[in-house]
Amino acid sequence: xxxxxxxxxxxxxxxxMGLWHPHPRARRRAQGLLRLAQQRTQEQVxxxxxxxxxxxxxxxxxxxxxxxxGLYEGAREGRxxxxxxxxxxxxxxxxxxxxxxxxxIMQCMEQQHxxxxxxxxxxxxxxxxxxxxxxxxxxxxKKSAIAKRWRAxxxxxxx
Length: 159
What we know:
Blueprint: H1 8-20, H2 24-37, H3 42-49, H4 53-66, H5 85-98, H6 102-111, H7 120-129, H8 143-152
């Protein structure tokens, strides 16, 4: 296995980046490269940082190809969830009319044959982006309040 070596200036730069960079992933990559320069194996570094060894191999390759710029993260994979304007407007109407929890709003949308095939947290984010916010409401009344209502209605008296 070929030794991974760094100049003193590169070590200093990676050390500073590993300590002070604002992005945690960039800090982790810099620290990982420093461990490789200490003659640790890719498997050891991967285990230490909780990543796959292929990730460590990629950090090393990006460093050798692009230097410091190679440690920065590019565009992340994944398709953003899309909300069509028609569904967005209907969601806004249902939320305004029905209220309640996000799950309740999702059930109302499903009853109207517009199911939202996403997680409730995604719907909550959409509602927040629309300027709407919902707090959880209590699904049940306290037992003491039920007893108080029952006594006030006169149902609690024995004949």
